[in-house]
Amino acid sequence: MINRLGHYLKFGATALVVSGATLTAHAAQIDLLVLYDDASASRMQGEPAVVLKSWQDQINTMYRNSQVDLQLRIVGVERNDFASSDMTQALMTVARSASVAQIRDRVGADFVTQLHQSGNCGVGYLSVHPNYAFNVLGAGCGPAALAHELGHNMGLNHSRAQGDTSGTEYRYGLGHGVNGAFGTLMTYEWYYRAAKMSVFSNPRIQCRGYPCGVEEGAQGEADAAKAINNVKTRVADFRPTKVGGPGPNPGPTEPEEPTNPNEPTEPTDPEGTVQNGNYLIKVAATGRCLNVNNSRWGMSDVVQWSCTQAPNQQWTLTSQADEFVKLASTGTQGCLNVVASSRRAGANVIAYRCSERESQQWQLKQVEEGKFQVTARHSGLCLDAGSNANGSSLTQATCNGSDSQRFHFSKM
């Protein structure tokens, strides 16, 4: 839709992760101010700054995997509660607010995000201009949704499948997808009947065996990574840098696991089973947690990520018939599911609308103290973390007894 100022408003969906890429040594730094209302703070368990630090790290991983030469730094997290039940109205209110403008100038924020209690996952101005570097986001929608809305603020449109034919600055500033395989960050993934990958379209990298984009000048061109890189200096200069410090580490090092002396210990059941309840599920090989990159549209990537105990890392285990269990994401209400009920080794495991399908039923077998093998009922294949990389997707694979196929269940 178009507002009366003539700048497009774009509504976002969501999503996480993919095969690798490199980041140059001189990535441009963009500074973000995040405002939140009381409902959003409650959704983030009263600690929005802690949750947003994790989002920052995950978005920077998305940029790095996409070959986007940006680093996001959150320079302010402040309360801004006001009455509005409509995201579009909230966006215009924040963009016109004198008090928000003062905070933005004080911290030197290039972009401003308002976390909001209601509406879709997000809405943002489709523009490359400092006066329209604003977006509004649902607090439960996660880091991929924020990356999506920031993409709109950098001139990116959705995808050709959704009727869009160009970004604001470059024709190829679009998302891309392949039916039944993937949709990149700027797409609505259900148009492709697939889970979203948390990368921007880029024909130089691979998404589940396909190029993640289409070369400039080719039919269906889609290269959002190139479009962002073309404007990176402009957007990083929307406001002069005010907040000191080096910002996020631009190198490829992964965030360290947080230390929490009060973290629950692994459950020890004398019968070698895990009882019904809420759990963190940790990969034995890496100690990272199964993390859902939330999409409200039904399919969300499940990846391993440094443990934060956020709702999208919490799983509710419920016993089913014949000693199988169902694992439902507490933060998204989707169940652990093999994509398209595939029986193929290497098929992705996602969070999908809970149902009675066998591809959502899993058998837990304790293979050594505190470590469980998780086997899909319909295929007999094992849940597998594969790569040791932070943000790598979960798949099903031929059972081999490795620690990438063994999981700790930590009771919440």
How would you characterize this protein structure?
Helix content is 17%, strand content 27%. The longest helix has 19 residues, at 48-66. By secondary structure, it is of the alpha+beta class. It folds into two domains: 8-236, 3-Layer(aba) Sandwich (Collagenase (Catalytic Domain)); 277-411, Trefoil (Trefoil (Acidic Fibroblast Growth Factor, subunit A)), CATH 2.80.10. A hairpin with a 2-residue loop joins strand 9 (206-207) and strand 10. It has a six-stranded mixed sheet with strand order 1-5-6-4-2-3, sandwiched between helices. It has a six-stranded antiparallel sheet with strand order 15-14-11-22-19-18, with no helix packed on it. Strands 12-13-17-16 form a four-stranded antiparallel sheet, with no helix packed on it.
- Give helix % range: 10-25%
User: What is the CATH topology classification name of the largest domain?
Assistant: Collagenase (Catalytic Domain)
Q: State the shape.
A: globular
Which sequence of SSEs, written as H and E, runs from N to C?
A: EEHHEHHEEEHEEEEHEEEEEEEEEEEE
The radius of gyration over CA amounts to 21 Å
Question: CATH homologous superfamily name of the largest domain?
Answer: Collagenase (Catalytic Domain)
Known CATH architecture of the largest domain? 3-Layer(aba) Sandwich
| Number of helical stretches of at least 4 residues | 6
Poorly predicted regions are: 1-7, 12-24, 245-271
Structural class computed from helices and strand pairing: alpha+beta
Total strand segments: 22
Strand content: 25-35%
